[in-house]
Hints:
The protein has 206 residues and is mostly helical. The protein contains 7 helices and 2 strands; from the N terminus they run ααβααβααα.
Amino acid sequence: MRSHAADRAIRLLVNLAGAAGAVFFARASLLFYLQTHRLIGAAFFVEQAWFVAAFLFRRPAREISHQLGAWLLAAGGTFIGLLLRPDAVHVVWGVQAGLALQLCGLGLAVTALVALGRSFGFVAADRGVVTRGPYAIIRHPVYAAYVLIQSGYLLQAISWRNAAVVVLATGCNIGRALAEERVLSASADYRKYRQQVRWRLIPGVL
């Protein structure tokens, strides 16, 4: 069994690594905005800056999964989207619809992060039950936001490669949600919340 000091050291390393990754994405979004002056770049910069703060100031977990599978799903759901590439088919309707999906996903992500506050997490863990904001409608709005943002990218840059990336990333985020619920199911508050909010990612579907 690991010592308390070892757990604190691991938590610190994970927080710093997550913040560093968010800084990388924030920098890329800022450069995109400066080069193109498209406001979506600035919006993604704000979102990633929030992720930086969330990793640095998040609340320690009451319980956290130590299963390798849960960590791999979390990494896959977060980072596989980096494999998306713009060299693909660009159709006018796809670019417009994709932008709308990305904006919806971005708005959902920011709203969910605000609702989470310091309860933000990377891997399956229990940091308390959040029921406000989008969590009153679906149980995993941040993962749903990833699906919207990545699907929007696919519509803007249609290719078999991008489709495979979106399917794989979405599969990881669904698995990530299930892994998180296995950890949280030990909490009576979460079991009650799960009865009240039926849907995980998409109301009426999943």
